[in-house]
Design goal:
Blueprint (H helix, E strand, L loop, with lengths): L1 E6 L8 H13 L3 E7 L1 H8 L9 E5 L10 H7 L4 H11 L3 E6 L3 H12 L9 E3 L1 E3 L5 E5 L9 H19 L5 E5 L10 H12 L4 E6 L11 E3 L2 H26 L3 H9 L1 H11 L7 E4 L4 E4 L6 H16 L2 H10 L7
Parallel strand pairs: 1-2, 1-4, 2-3, 4-12, 7-10, 8-9, 8-10
Antiparallel strand pairs: 5-11, 6-7, 11-12
Length: about 350
């Protein structure tokens, strides 16, 4: 039985989305057991009238909620009874619990995970790796996307190794094509950090390094992993998601602007639904925090039930594939070079 914690408070649709996402995940995975952290009274109320296997669902009372404007360090020190910190502490202290999922404060989650959980041996810094869809029906992972604003070439090499192993073991992509986010495709492009990292990635035998990638090619389907510092990666992901959402809004507005367009849209309604589902980040889960001693998955604050279910699925697959052990083994090969 694989046990996973679900932080049920902190997101925009809590506790409804985490609870419903958890129940959906239980129905799909018979060897899954979930522990919900949050206000016990509210969680029981949310569960009323719903069918589920009570033997595989446990509530951990945690009455405090973390606000978006609270300092992460204060949360770690002072809010041990919050749904997020209770989950992190339980994840640290109990060997039978494999992972946790949260849609709460990103800063609090990263700080709590680093302070309370620690890192996989050899990992310098954990990094976020969200997944986006590509134009050929595949996916691409971006690592890092916000956990580390300032990095070295050694950090970026570890991000590449961890993300490559993640895409291979969780999504079944053999020899993931790994690229470095840069301002041009030529090897000499970019600043000193990017040029130094380019050489390191070329020398890393376990990687299928395919060179630099310009941001406009992120969804092309030509890459499986994109390596970046947390600042650039975060901007890349949010700009891409924002563009997709605004494009959908414009298409909808244009359709309703003319009767002829409405008639055409009626004939193409199925296609529009498929495209909407393709662009909807809710269908791709959350950002896994690669490099922590136990599995942590961060969902969007606006995650609905389907997104929470996908986050739980990500955590489940990471544990089944024993990803953490594989990361430790591979990182150890280069540990004496990286500082």
């Amino acid at each position: 039985m694989i046990k996973i914690l679900v932080d049920c408070f902190g997101g925009d649709h809590c506790p409804e989305a985490p609870v419903n996402g958890a129940l959906a995940a239980l129905r799909v995975n018979p060897d899954l057991q979930l522990l919900l952290t949050g206000d016990e009274t509210l969680l029981k109320k949310e569960l009323e009238g719903k069918e589920y296997d009570a033997a595989r669902l446990e509530i951990i009372h945690a009455p405090e909620v973390i606000g978006c404007d609270e300092k992460p360090t204060d949360v770690v020190r002072l809010k041990r009874n919050s749904s997020m910190m209770k989950a992190i502490i339980l994840l640290r202290d109990r060997d039978d619990i494999a992972a946790m999922v949260s849609t709460g404060s990103t800063g609090a989650l990263v700080t709590g995970a680093l302070v309370r959980l620690g890192r996989i041996p050899g990992v310098i810094r954990p990094a976020f790796c969200p997944i986006l869809p590509t134009m050929n029906g595949g996916i691409v992972g971006i690592c890092d996307s916000g956990a580390n604003v300032e990095v070295t070439s050694a950090h970026l090499r570890q991000f590449a190794i961890m993300a490559s192993l993640y895409l291979e073991n969780v999504y079944g992509i053999k020899k993931p094509r790994t690229a470095l986010l840069n301002v041009g495709k030529e090897a000499e492009k970019g600043d000193d950090l990017r040029r130094e990292t380019y050489k390191l990635l070329q020398e890393t035998e376990s990687l299928h390094f395919v060179g630099n990638m310009e941001s406009r090619d992120l969804l092309s389907g030509n890459y499986d992993v994109v390596v970046a510092d947390g600042f650039s990666g975060n901007v890349l992901v949010k700009a891409t998601e924002g563009t997709a959402l605004e494009l959908l809004k414009k298409i909808k507005k244009d359709i309703y602007s003319r009767t002829l367009y409405k008639m055409g849209a009626l004939l193409m309604s199925r296609m529009f639904k498929e495209e909407k589902a393709f662009m909807n980040y809710q269908n791709y889960g959350g950002s896994v925090l690669l490099g922590t001693s136990k599995v942590v998955v961060k969902g969007h604050g606006s995650s609905k039930a389907v997104a929470v279910e996908k986050c739980i699925e990500q955590a489940y697959k990471m544990e089944v594939s024993r990803l953490s052990g594989k990361i430790e083994t591979e990182i150890a090969k280069y540990e004496h070079y990286d500082v």
